[in-house]
Design a protein that fits this description.
The chain has a 9-stranded mixed sheet with strand order 1-2-6-5-4-3-7-8-9, with helices on both faces. A 3-stranded antiparallel sheet has the order 10-12-11. The N and C termini lie far apart (about 60 Å). It is elongated. The chain has 17 helices and 12 strands. The protein is of the alpha/beta class and about 375 residues long. Helix content is about 45%, strand content about 15%. The protein has 3 domains: about 70 residues; about 180 residues, Rossmann fold (3-Layer(aba) Sandwich), CATH 3.40.50.450; about 60 residues, Winged helix-like DNA-binding domain superfamily/Winged helix DNA-binding domain (Arc Repressor Mutant, subunit A, Orthogonal Bundle), CATH 1.10.10.10. The mean pLDDT is about 90.
């Protein structure tokens, strides 16, 4: 019975002329899937209050039913879930978008309705500056939120860097594809796709098997990248880059949009700078900027202006000690810090001295230390 229902849902998505708006009209008219496929052309047009002369022809519906049987069988064999617009497992953020896919194919066991989700997009040929920012943003934010997903498009450059950074810190990541799930593009990212699935992530697409990628489909899939998340971060893009499409879609959906600024005249920063200048994106330079913009509170800590300046500058031993002290409910001795981090006491004292000099911690009686920021 469930397979039959899946066939009807997939067939609805495959029917020529059917978009999210029409599916919502079906719900409002209390028109069942069975009725959609059984009514005459004129009766269906009347039930859906379509414009005069506007029909969803029976032969198109019958052809969609025929294709859907094979599609659902393929999905079953390969453990792909076809998620219908009104299904509980369908991404609720995406369902809010007026042009959401009628069916979203999902490979993987990820929860597509996490507490938090962020999309990270950008150029396929980034600089070291962009790659480092992408990596540090994920590493500095994702570990502090259990219910979080990192979303991108599996392309070269920033997309791949975002997926890899998420995998590196154990955060689920979703790749939104511009083709059917019977293939991977680019082929060089097949191993990355496997890692995404192995680490609790997902491959998503609105296209059935056999559909190949081309320019228009990459533009179409960008609305999914924009719609499934709370925010979109653009990391390096030309003014005509695909990431700009995603950013503009996200802005239209009412999502938070942020961009990494660059030097005037740098081609790969021109798109980000334009978004900021036109007030379509907030300027961010570090993880703390992102957290402040989203008002996300990791571990209940409020990020103020002073923390925002210091947080990205801490590296190595100083950063490890700062993170340990920030997560501790009590003041810590140098010996306790050394033992917990397995850091030689000489290195521990040296790093503590630097943090104290910078006003980030203070030394208390009994050789104990307290964080001040």
């Amino acid at each position: 019975m469930e397979s039959k229902t899946d066939e009807l849902k997939v067939a609805l998505a495959l029917t020529k002329g059917v978009k999210a708006g029409l599916v919502r009209a079906m719900e409002e008219a209390a028109l069942s899937l069975e009725e959609f496929f059984s009514l005459s052309d004129s009766a269906l047009s009347e039930a859906l209050n379509l414009a005069p002369g506007k029909f969803i022809y029976r032969y198109d519906r019958e052809e969609a039913l025929f294709k859907a049987r094979d599609e659902v069988a393929f999905c079953s064999r390969h453990h792909i879930s076809p998620l219908f617009l009104f299904d509980s497992g369908y991404p609720r953020r995406l369902a809010e978008c007026p042009d959401a896919p009628v069916v979203l194919y999902c490979l993987g066991n990820a929860d597509l309705n996490p507490e938090k989700a962020v999309s990270i997009v950008g150029t396929r040929g980034p600089t070291a500056y962009g790659m480092d920012f992408c990596r540090r943003l994920v590493e500095d934010v994702a570990p502090f939120f259990d219910g979080m997903a990192v979303v991108s498009g599996l392309a070269y450059g920033i997309d791949a860097a975002a997926h890899e950074a998420a995998i590196g810190v154990g955060t689920p990541t979703w790749a939104v594809l511009a083709h059917g799930l019977d293939t991977i593009y680019p082929a060089q990212h097949r191993q990355l796709a496997r890692m995404i699935l192995d680490r609790g992530g997902a491959l998503l697409s609105e296209y059935p098997r056999g559909e190949r990628p081309y320019r228009q489909r990459f533009l179409e899939r960008n609305r999914i990248v924009a719609g499934v998340s709370d925010a979109v971060v653009v990391v390096e893009s030309d003014v005509k880059g695909g990431a700009m499409s995603t950013a503009n879609l996200a802005f239209g959906y009412g999502r938070d949009v942020m961009a990494l600024p660059g030097r005037a005249g740098d081609r790969l920063s021109s798109g980000c700078n334009l978004l900021i200048r036109r007030q379509k994106a907030q300027l961010i330079t570090c993880a703390a900027d992102f957290l402040e913009q989203m008002d996300w509170r990791p571990m209940g800590i409020k990020v103020d202006g002073r923390q925002r300046e210091l947080f990205p500058e801490l590296e190595g031993d100083s950063r490890s000690i700062y993170e340990l002290m920030r997560s501790s409910d009590t003041d810590l001795t140098a010996d306790a810090i050394s033992a917990t981090l397995r850091m030689p006491i000489a290195k521990t004292l040296s790093a503590l001295g630097e943090l104290e000099f910078d006003g980030i911690i203070e030394k208390l009686p009994g050789n104990r230390y307290r964080i001040t920021l």
